[in-house]
Hints:
The chain is mainly β and 328 residues long. The chain has a domain at 1-37. It has 5 helices and 24 strands. Keywords: Nucleus.
Amino acid sequence: xxxxxxxxxxxxxxxxxxxxxxxxxxxxxxxxxxxxxxxxxxxxxxxxxxxxxxxxxxxxxxxxxxxxxxxxxxxxxxxxxxxxxxxxxxxxxxxxxxxxxxxxxxxxxxxxxxxxxxxxxxxxxxxxxxxxxxxxxxxxxxxxxxxxxxxxxxxxxxxxxxxxxxxxxxxxxxxxxxxxxxxxxxxxxxxxxxxxxxxxxxxxxxxxxxxxxxxxxxxxxxxxxxxxxxxxxxxxxxxxxxxxxxxxxxxxxxxxxxxxxxxxxxxxxxxxxxxxxxxxxxxxxxxxxxxxxxxxxxxxxxxxxxxxxxxxxxxxxxxxxxxxxxxx
Length: 328
């Protein structure tokens, strides 16, 4: 039986109790609100460009502009409200494999990565060209402060992780450990042709996760190597800073012990909402070496439950909220 202090299941009843029981209508109301809000999505705009195939997207300047990387190496700046292409930038000679942004007070920094290079742009002045180009690196990602960029070498064995300074444009650190090595082993990488995963920053920007390996940036070597129980397709820190998610496994960052396995996270890429209490997951894209037109028609991709959908999960309990199909 429901306790008098428990939030009602019905959303209208929860809202009517706010004056007495607080903003969420009682105990458990916050979780119920997440379940309600993040299970209901409505399409507001379709963005299409028949002249290119989009490979990655990112918001620029809040939610007003969408930057879309293409298979041909171009970046299209698109009005998110109208869906119109505002500008086309010839950014790379190969497919754009990732786009990352960091908002400043007066502009937005944008990182575009191809298989062999990373370019840093002023998101509000893309037509002026890149601010800097970092060669022989891929999968660039800003730290949360926007002061540094973590990237992965695109050639040579064993692979390395690089740290670049955004202000001076210089490489300030190279991460490599002969025993605790992040990313795939050379034999596996050579067999699949797949580039290593992006390096992920901790919420405090003091730790870096690459593959199964964890670095404390204050010391010169890796500090831990997590066991790999499934094929590694994603790795990230939970925004609370106490957990690491490696594919479908969730690890305690304090004890390095396995906390749980979440099967629906297998072979997915994860993004958290701004408050860190909801996760969005989509089917994992191929590695840089596999990003081809043929990938769009692979049978294994078509069988994935998120082939044409995205899923939301409660980031506190890892419970599924909803799966939203976007195919029309």
